[in-house]
Amino acid sequence: MSDRETRCNAGGQFMDRGRMNQNGVVQPLLTDLYQITMAYAYWKSGKTDDHSVFDLFFRSNPFHGEFTIFAGLDECLRFLESFHYSESDIEYLRRTLPEGTENEFFDYLGDLTAKDVTLHAIDEGTVAFPRVPIIKVEGPLIIAQLLETTLLTLVNYASLMATNAARYRMVAGKHVNLLEFGLRRAQGPDGGLSASKYSYTGGFDGTSNVLAGKLFNIPVKGTHAHAYITSFSGIEELKARLLKHKLTGVTGDLLELAIKYRQKLSTVLNVSMEESSEGELAAMVSYAIAFPDGFMALVDTYDVKRSGLLNFCAVALALNDLGYQAVGIRIDSGDLAYLSCLARETFERVAERFKVQWFNKLTIVASNDINEETILSLNEQGHKIDCFGIGTHLVTCQRQPALGCVYKLVEINGQPRIKLSQDVEKVTMPGHKNAYRLYSSDGHALIDLLQKVSETPPEVGQKVLCRHPFQESKRAYVIPSRVEPLYKIYWQNGKITQKLPTLELVREKVQKSLKTLRNDHKRTLNPTPYKVSVSDNLYNFIHDLWLQNAPIGELS
Ligand SMILES: Nc1ncnc2c1ncn2[C@@H]1O[C@H](COP(=O)(O)OP(=O)(O)OP(=O)(O)O)[C@@H](O)[C@H]1O
Ligand SMILES: O=P(O)(O)OC[C@H]1O[C@H](OP(=O)(O)OP(=O)(O)O)[C@H](O)[C@@H]1O
Ligand SMILES: O=C(O)c1cccnc1
Ligand SMILES: [Mg+2]
Question: What range(s) does the Nicotinate phosphoribosyltransferase C-terminal domain occupy (predicted)?
Fold first, then answer.
């Protein structure tokens, strides 16, 4: 059994490499069968070592937006590092490929690694745009081809998720906490883990997913479910009601104190005690005893106004008598704008009436089918929510469930390759290219420029002609104030060649990179497209090759 298999089987799905964890499901057989059948045919036809260049790019931005956050590079590099068919992989392939597949091919596969491949990429966490390759893979045709599906699966969802999360962060603003609550609704366990990881990358503050917390060192956060409240039907069920004072250690009766405050509060808040739920009170008292320093309660099980807030404030005031400060509430149904304002007013009134200043700072968490539009609408209406717990729409990427990154051969043995299509958008940009981001004097990204690798890079202060790749009349001169070469070599000679950033640093990079984008590219409604251009030289090269390759029809 290989090293990989031992670790996967013994340690569960993830392998601890001392850095970020690698998903054990990511292995050479996590691919489409056609990669392996092509590999055999390449091998048979003597093409294994043809020097190839593949571009990995997407054709349009997700969510009707004009930017995409590139994520997943770290996992791609770990995949290259561990790329090796185990004995049982080879054994499986022998059984699976057609009879007559030559034995020597399997021996060849058994020795295959990614050491002869060079991978160029833009930095993980950077904003990226359609048609500009985010990864370029260069090396022997057979291995470069075999990497296609796995690299795509590692980049597509990661980038989609990070982009989605970044969009939620943009609409929610800097000061609101965003928690990912999506595991139960995600596309399976692996989708759930990736969602937690990449929503953190995109700008969320934490996740409810405990395994993601352990594996990726993401803050884990949460409240409790309605079941906790409904599991109590009255105060007589309370087995524990005593709590020691935080400072003096003197035991107090939390239930008795809460009942006393509940009575007073019913007048202050003008709600009747009879209408409120005693089961809910009992549940809150018991939860507060379990977590006196972290008391956070769900207040919408019966009625936020008539029951939840009254019971919460009663327990929080009782805790205060015993030297503790409650944390806050979660609202999971109803009109979140109205209820959050009501809760905040209630806390302010209680703070004043009972002289407990910290009540003003209680946290209000809102959840329940929240998406980008809900947050925008809540912002318009005015709300007092400090934290959104977001699940389904975030992790399933409701507005667009897939990013369409593709992996295309653009050069072989120094010869450019072009894939033609009736649809201009789908014509590939041939040849090995470099990409530069050109910035204006105010620090904003102006345009991305693709060139042939043989061309001299654009220079600061020098006028450069930037052309639309397919529309002849669209071109502009740009005098950049800064030129950023977008690619770095991340993998070469069998090694990762850059110091890889931690997840935390990638998360910071996302926000920094987004800052370089003008607001009109980032707005939700009808954002301005960011320009992606080619050099004059590349333009002519593409169009000459296009003409050479497009068959000439005959009319009769
Ligand atoms: N003030 C608001 N403005 C816009 N959308 C809101 C507002 N308050 C809540 N929402 C959203 O409206 C939807 C309400 O959903 P729904 O009617 O299914 O829930 P509910 O009846 O309040 O609660 P539940 O069915 O979970 O008990 C949710 O998607 C929620 O995020
Ligand atoms: O709404 P989301 O964005 O997916 O956020 C996560 C949801 O998960 C929980 O609901 P639960 O599974 O208890 O179901 P319910 O609230 O829909 O009844 C929680 O109370 C949130 O409502
Ligand atoms: O901790 C929570 O409040 C939570 C976690 C997952 C789903 N819904 C809510
Ligand atoms: Mg819900």
Answer: 433-541
**Shortest CA distance to 298 belongs to which of 371, 245, 225, 231?**
225
Residue identifier of the C-alpha nearest atom 20 of ligand 2: 332
Q: Which pTM value belongs to this model?
A: 0.95
The CA 335 to ligand 1 mean position distance, Å, reads 6
User: Residues lining ligand 2, judged by CB closer than 6 Å?
Assistant: 181, 184-185, 225, 332, 367-370, 389-393
Rg (CA), the chain: 29
Which ligand has an atom closest to residue 199 CA? 2
CATH of the domain at 444: 3.20.140.10
Average pLDDT of the segment spanning 19-36: 86
What percent of the chain shows pLDDT beyond 90?
92
Structure tokens at 77: 């590099």
User: Do 424 and 378 share a domain, yes or no?
Assistant: no
Calpha distance 394→357 (Å, rounded): 35
CATH number at residue 373: 3.20.20
**What gap in Å lies between CA 437 and CA 416, rounded to an integer?**
24
Rounded CA-CA distance 272/280 in Å is 15
Q: Quick one: residue 228, left, alpha or beta (phi over 0 = left, psi -120 to 50 = alpha)?
A: alpha
The percent of residues above 70 in pLDDT, for the chain, comes to 96
Tell me which residues have their CB within 5 A of the ion that is ligand 4: 368
Separation of CA 367 and ligand 1 centre (Å)? 9
Q: What is the pLDDT of residues 470-514, one digit of tens each?
A: 999 999 999 999 999 999 999 999 999 999 999 999 999 999 999
- Domain count for the chain, please give it: 2
Within-domain flag for 205:
no
- Which protein residue has the closest C-alpha to ligand 1 atom 26? 333
**What's the CA-to-centroid distance between 392 and ligand 4, angstroms?**
9
Whether residue 221 is predicted with pLDDT greater than 50 in this model: the reply is yes
